[in-house]
């Protein structure tokens, strides 16, 4: 269930504060190696949702070469600025500021979509995965590393904007997470990595890496 508008505003402010500060730090923002799993090939177009400081965008730009492109999307203005500064030497890379559930890029513009520890911040995970489906070309693939909870979170955590900003308040059980991906029309869904559960903020969470595809042909 999505949070009420007041909570959503609080989450947005808490995330902006935390990630604005992290835009100039060297702290890892990852919970997996989604780009390595996706393994972009020369000539492909890659989108990184929640690109942070742009490290994976830069790596993808090198992997796809001059015939491909790498685009980072992030909602934090300071992260976008940091990513743009880090991509200066990559002519085939760019960053776009925006909501992961409403990306200002055209339909079917990507062969590969990746994301690393970002979708857990979205109040509506299904909306983000519908965007993944929309952005992918038919037959395109995704690899996402993210945080899921062992059990449904108590209201005390779900209603805490700081917990959302810290990458666990917005987590949902793995079954619900995978269900949101399937409901978005993506197929071939597979969990290729699953960490042992660990405690954060009084709840048990874990990191998973999920892969899948937009079907080559779809019933209209």
Structure description:
The longest helix is centred in the first third of the chain and has 18 residues. This protein has a single domain, classed as Vaccinia Virus protein VP39 (Rossmann fold), CATH 3.40.50.150. The protein is globular. It contains 8 helices and 8 strands, in the order ααβαβαββαβαααβββ. Helix 5 crosses helix 8. The mean pLDDT is 90. Strands 1, 2, 3, 4, 5, 6, 7 and 8 form an 8-stranded mixed β-sheet that branches. The protein is 33% helix and 27% strand. The chain starts with a helix and ends in a 7-residue tail after the last strand. The chain is α/β, with parallel strands linked by helices and 220 residues long.
Mean of all residue-level pLDDT scores: 90
CATH superfamily membership, which one? Answer: Vaccinia Virus protein VP39
Share in β-strands: 25-35%
Provide the succession of SSEs: HHEHEHEEHEHHHEEE
Which descriptor suits the 3D outline?
A: globular
Q: What is the domain total for the residues? A: 1
* Gyration radius, rounded: 16 Å
What is the tally of beta strands?
Answer: 8
Number of helices: 8
CATH class group? Alpha Beta
Derived from helix and strand composition plus strand pairing, the structural class reads alpha/beta
Name of the CATH architecture: 3-Layer(aba) Sandwich
